[in-house]
Please model this.
Amino acid sequence: MHNAGAGMSGEYTNCSFRSIGTGIFKGSEKSNPRFGVKGKIEKVEEVKIEVLVNSFDLKKL
Model:
């Protein structure tokens, strides 16, 4: 994303905000979960990364 122009703020580049949290999901009987078991509520630790991007750079992402 940074190579495509995301994460720029003034004279700074490679800017991002990261937050750690817990993702919760439950796959249907037709699901093919990579983590956990289908039909059961699962919790996994996740990292969310946010970056600013100019609208004219969206096509590059």
